[in-house]
Structure formats: C-alpha cells, structure tokens
Amino acid sequence: MFCVAPPELETKMNITKGGLVLFSANSNSSCMELSKKIAERLGVEMGKVQVYQEPNRETRVQIQESVRGKDVFIIQTVSKDVNTTIMELLIMVYACKTSCAKSIIGVIPYFPYSKQCKMRKRGSIVSKLLASMMCKAGLTHLITMDLHQKEIQGFFNIPVDNLRASPFLLQYIQEEIPDYRNAVIVAKSPASAKRAQSFAERLRLGIAVIHGEAQDAESDLVDGRHSPPMVRSVAAIHPSLEIPMLIPKEKPPITVVGDVGGRIAIIVDDIIDDVDSFLAAAETLKERGAYKIFVMATHGLLSSDAPRLIEESAIDEVMISGSWDQAPHRAPCSMGSLRLLILPARALSPINK
Prior knowledge:
By secondary structure, the chain is α/β, with parallel strands linked by helices. It is built from 9 helices and 15 strands. The longest helix has 17 residues, at 82-98.
C-alpha cells in the first residue's frame, strides 16, 4: 500500500512530509493500532487530536495542531458501534475543513452501511446518504477496501480508491496451505461466483458453486417484485383489464456445481457478518466429500455469536483482514479457528493472541 522513497528523493520526501498530517479516530483500539503502523511505515508522527464523548453522549473533536494548507489523512476503522464511528469521522472531517486544511483524505478500510446500497421496497439507499454526508462534511478523497458493490463509488462526487485485499489472501493460500493445489474455490451462492472465478483463475484451481440456498436479502418479497396483486383481473382499474398471475419462485434443493470430493474447499466472499449461509455451505461441502474447509473474506463483521457458531461448525479456519475492529474476539475465550491478517503485513497471527 505504501512505499519507501529511495535516498536520492529523501529531500523531496521531507518537503512532502512537512505538509502531511495523519490523524486517527478514537473509536476503537484497532484504529489506533492501524494508524500507528501506517505512521511508522511512512516515517511520520501521528497528529495531535482529541476525540471523546461528553456525558450526554455527544462526540467532541479538538484538533491540537495547525492543519492550515496541509494534506490531512484521517484513519477510521469501523467497530460494533457503527453510528458513533460515523459521527466521529464526520465531525473530525468538518473540524479539519473549518481549520482550512488543503485536502482531507479519509482512510476507511470497511465502508459502513455498504450492504444497504440497493433500494428495498420502501426503504432507502443508506450508503448513498452516507456518501453525501461525507462529501458535505468536507472529505476530498476516500481510500477504502473491497466495497460490497463497486457501484458505491458512483455515490461520491470525489475520487475513491477501492483497494483490493485479494493479493494478500492469495498469498496466504499459496504459503500457508501446503497442498493448496488440491483445493477448489467455492462460491456459496451464484451471486459470488464472479469473485470465486477471479480467485480460481489466479491460483489456477477449479471452481464450485453452491446453488439452491435461501437468499433472504435478495428475495422477491424484499425488493417488491410481488407488489402487483395476485389476481387475474382488477375491476377497479378497468373491467376488461387482466393481469397475469405471478408465479412465486421456488428454491431448488441445494446442489453443488463442481467436484469437491476429497479436496480442500476454500469459500471466498467480501463480508462475513451473519454466518448462517457459511455454515450451511460448509455442511453441504462436507457431505459432498470435502475434507477441509476454509473461509476467506476481507471484512470480518462476525455479528452476534458468530465466532461460537463457527467453532461448532464444519469450518476448519476463517481468514479475515483487520478492516473491522476485532477487539471483542481477542479474549482468551474466543475461537482459535479465526485468523486475522493485518494488511499489508505478510505475517499472520491468530485473533486470540
């Protein structure tokens, strides 16, 4: 992600550093940890800022150094308290804007509300609202990683860098799975087949797709395709008007397109939140003869009691990046099957260490 300048450019680099300020939000410990790693890699000191909540739960930000005419980078990783995280970011961006910063770049590894990027019946496109709020607050550039949908970039009227975690996940497969040549990349639903195909092509492995699982988030009832009345005629509109009967879709029995017998199954996706679909996919793969099952994703939200469910399932190991606050999973009682990859570091370390 970042590079070190050669010695002959050191003088020019020092001039650039003089106009750069790196701030870290205060929402969680993983944000501070990531910020320190980035500052150490760049060879700069962290900017001085106070971010705290008052007794009435209002967020207050105090910039403690001049940012006038400087390029400001604000690093913010999302935690379980998503809304507080967002307010911290917006207030910090606005504080830098009113302090006459030259540019304000947000470094947000996981873009919050990215799963709400489509219209659902009488709902709203919340990620569009959040993008507008960030731009209005004063953000001039966004650096994020593996957006849930690439189309989210179009919600912004500022440049957006959508970085990829796949090179590090591919490197993990090649270096940490000795017999990965006997593996098959699995898409847990047809919707994620494109991502699985990309992994399979770069690793030169086969691909398998699980078809027939329930997909509540994409169901017809949610997006409103059953809104017309389920009747053959509507006299209220016109006595002779006939509307054809809508035949509801039926999910076929779960099937696996591809051979997974006697092989390692690697399920790839961008987000692990509610793990029910991953657990069902793992059970299906186990029944079809897969002898080891890995799950790899960029963003490990792991809501509710997901770590416990994973530990009790057929999944052998889950690989995620450090884009989300994993502090709740670092306790000694957490599940040892989860592994955390701090990008762009090459070393891997178990979450519970």
